[in-house]
Design a protein that fits this description.
By secondary structure, the chain is mostly beta strands. The chain has a single domain, classed as Porin. Helix content is about 5%, strand content about 60%. The two termini are about 35 Å apart.
Length: about 210
C-alpha cells in the first residue's frame, strides 16, 4: 500500500507550483444538491416530508493567500426541489441559492493532482415556495438559513492553466417552515426543515 501511495504522488509531481500567492482560480460546472431524508423535524403534524434532489450550474472563485491557503466563494444558478409527502406524492416545490465562503488548505501545490479541504459559512436564500398540491391556495414560507459548510475536493491538470475539479460538500441548512392558509385561515407551524444536503460537483477551471 505504501508503494502504491508513493507511486501516486510521484506520478502527480510537477516541478512548478500550479497556483501560488496572488493567483485566482475560476471554475464552472454542475452540481447536485442531495438533501437528507426525512427533512421535517419537530413537526406538529405526522407527515413524512421529503425534499428531492436538485441540479444546477455552479461557479467558484478562489484566491490564494499563500501556495497552500486560499479563500473560495461558491455561487450558483438557483436550485429547484420538489417537495413530496408520503401518500400524496409531489405537493409543491421550493427554490434556493446557497452562496458559501470557505477557507481552504490545498495539499501538494506542486502536483498535477492537488487535493484540498475547506471549512466555511453558508447563507441559503429560500424562495418561490409552493404547496398548492397539498393545500390549494396555501402559501409555504421557509426562512433563510445560516450554517457551516465543509468540503473536500481535488484538481486535476488538463492543460497549462486549465484543470478538472471534483468536490463534495456538506452544508448545514435548517429552515423554519410555516403554511399561510387561504381565506384568512391563519398560519400552520410545520416545524424545522432540516435539509442538510450533500453537494457534489464537477467543474472545469482556469488559473489567472
Amino acid at each position: 500500500m505504501k508503494k502504491v501511495i508513493l507511486a501516486f504522488v510521484l506520478l502527480g509531481w510537477s516541478a512548478n507550483v500550479f497556483a501560488e500567492a496572488g493567483d485566482w482560480l475560476f471554475r464552472i460546472g454542475g452540481s447536485i444538491v442531495a438533501p437528507k431524508s426525512d427533512n421535517l423535524s419537530n413537526r406538529p403534524l405526522e407527515l413524512d416530508v421529503e425534499v428531492d434532489d436538485g441540479y444546477s450550474l455552479t461557479f467558484t472563485g478562489t484566491y490564494f493567500f499563500t501556495n497552500n491557503w486560499a479563500v473560495e466563494v461558491l455561487a450558483a444558478y438557483p436550485f429547484q426541489h420538489d417537495i413530496e409527502v408520503d401518500g400524496a406524492g409531489t405537493v409543491g416545490e421550493a427554490t434556493h441559492l446557497p452562496p458559501t465562503v470557505s477557507a481552504q488548505y490545498h495539499f501538494m501545490p506542486g502536483n498535477n493532482i492537488r487535493p484540498y479541504v475547506g471549512l466555511g459559512v453558508n447563507y441559503t436564500f429560500l424562495f418561490d415556495e409552493d404547496i398548492d398540491g397539498l393545500i390549494p391556495g396555501a402559501d409555504l414560507e421557509l426562512d433563510n438559513s445560516v450554517g457551516l459548510a465543509a468540503q473536500v475536493g481535488v484538481d486535476f491538470d488538463i492543460g497549462e492553466n486549465m484543470f478538472l475539479n471534483v468536490d463534495v460538500r456538506y452544508i448545514d441548512i435548517d429552515s423554519d417552515a410555516e403554511v399561510r392558509l387561504p381565506d384568512g385561515g391563519g398560519k400552520l407551524d410545520l416545524g424545522t426543515v432540516e435539509i442538510d444536503p450533500i453537494v457534489a460537483g464537477v467543474h472545469v477551471g482556469w488559473r489567472f
